Predict the structure of Baseplate J/gp47 family protein.
Amino acid sequence: MFEHISYEGLLEASLNNVANDVDKREGAIIFDALSPHTKQLYELYFSMDGMIQEMFGDTASREFLIKLCKDRGITPEVATPAIRKGEFNIDVSIGDRFSLGTLNYVVTEKISDGVFKLKCETVGIKGNLDYGNLIPIDYINGLEKAVLSDVLIPGEDEEPTEKLRKRYLESFDALAYGGNRKDYKDKVHKLQGIGGVKMYRVREGIYNVKLVIMDAQYQTPSLVLIDTIQTAIDPVVNQGEGLGIAPIGHVVKVEGVVETLVNLTFNITYDVGYDWALSELEFQAMIDNYFLELKKEWEDSSQLVVRIAQIESRALGIDGVIDIRDTLINGVADNLILHENAIPVRGVLSE
């Protein structure tokens, strides 16, 4: 707001208010008297500018944004631990601890014989990343197999500042109340492992509300996550009785997004020394990044569209690619329009 104000400008304005028959050159008495005062005045303007920035949700830093959010009953979502599947040759005990890499995991619940839920002892997305053989922290008699496999409920980092800012600004657009759309959206997002949700009014058997969710890794949720959200929103036992988050009378069905496999074929012109063998991994990363951007938009989109123009323009940024044309999506030279509850997943890429 005060970008146009500078120390030099303030000093010049102060000196202009002094009579012209007074010596105002640098080193003169009046110059030396006004200079320190002008410096303090400039610092005051600078502080005021910062204060004004912190007063508004669209410009506030994280510290002050959190204070503003409190007035709206909004708090940052805390980091949560990943819930993983552990597969063993024997039944281990609840509380047994294992390590993989730099992270430790503790057994929390039995799923079936030799299969257990493990909770990462370190919160955040780190717990979603590793797969492989676990090492018991304490000796377990008869243990021959210990494998960390599926992510059942993704761990999440503390809510990023811009996501919190978006929630704060959106809180002025609609009032969350009594099971309206915003109420469901806000409350579902407060549950662990959620990356997106869509709400539908349905007439489907006993159900009158359907929630379609995507996990925090922007993938199809596990059955464990779906069951966890179902229980939190409207438990299967005594559905519609208001025993969960859903209001009484709302019979809710929770489903996961479906994945649509996207195969891509390219006609690529390479620079000298480059070919598909050298660029395939970069193409895979490019497609994965593009699809991730689309999946982050799923919640607020009626349908996702995989666009050839987007793919080709991004491909031109890959080293060695001079030109690309005749791109096919699932064998068709046209954009792919996905079902409203579908997200794209990279399939086979080929020339």
